[in-house]
Amino acid sequence: MTKFRVFHRTWWKANPSWPDGREPGIGPRRHIAYVWSEEEAREACRAWNATHSPGLLSDKAEYEEA
After folding, report:
1. Does the predicted TM-score (pTM) go above 0.70?
2. What is the mean pLDDT of residues 2-30?
3. How many CB atoms lie within 10 A of CB 36?
């Protein structure tokens, strides 16, 4: 069985001199959980995204094989 790491990160970084006050820039991964199936990983991402606003920097949950 494969282990998956669920995490969240931003896809933009703040920069007041850019349009909309942000520029492209992938932020560091911030750990949420480890799960044992891809379906659990998808569900963990859905649950986290449903309870956290992505905000200006588009902070969203993702997963990868661990």
Report:
1. yes
2. 97
3. 12
Residue 64, burial from CB neighbour count under 10 angstroms (0-12, 13-18, 19+): exposed
Decide if 43 contacts 32 (C-beta within 8 A). Answer: no
- What's phi and psi for 9, nearest 5 deg? -160, 165
Question: For residue 61, what are its two tokens?
Answer: 């949950």
**Mean pLDDT (whole number) for 17-29:** 96
Q: How many CB atoms lie within 10 A of CB 15?
A: 13
The answer to whether 18 and 11 have CB atoms below 8 angstroms apart is no
